[in-house]
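Researcher: I'd like a structural prediction for the single chain below. Treat it as a standalone chain; there are no partners to consider.
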Amino acid sequence: MAERNRWRGAILGAVGGAIGTLVMGYYFQALARLNPAGEQGSSGEDNPDEQRSHALDDVSLMGKHYRDDESSTVTVGRLAYGAAAGEEPKTQETRTTLSQLVHWGFGTAMGALYGATRSGTRPPDLAGGAVFGAAVWLFASELMLPLLGLAPGPTVEPARQHATQFGAHLVYGATVAATTRLLERLVASRA
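Model: Treating it as a single chain, here is the predicted structure.
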């Protein structure tokens, strides 16, 4: 059996990551249509007990870099822009563009990692892809971003919001796996 080309896998995985990021966006749009009142809640207004401070509200090892009114992708985009330009982005349009670049860049990079490291050429491993998506959610969203001060700790958002993000990452991972495998099959059939 021939050894897999890891570079080709990374490129195909990057395409899979971009498509997975796109599908994740559709997932959030579908949820918004099912819940037009926006009750996925991040403020804790539904339950006064959720407004209390918890020990895990701030777990940062690096200080707080996020602002209460911004997502982690906006925070990373703002910080990267500040490091490159020496000032903060001036317009909301620039902040939104930076946030999208961070989101798509990270999704594409994680897809490349998946493509480079997946083993064999078995049929689409949707369960393995979903596990990959869950791992990205756990390590990036739930652990690294809060530890680096790029997002609040896990107890700031309600469990429902964590579940929504978890579901989005399962969809992302399964899409990355299916797309990468399909592209591998297409490339192999042309060889």
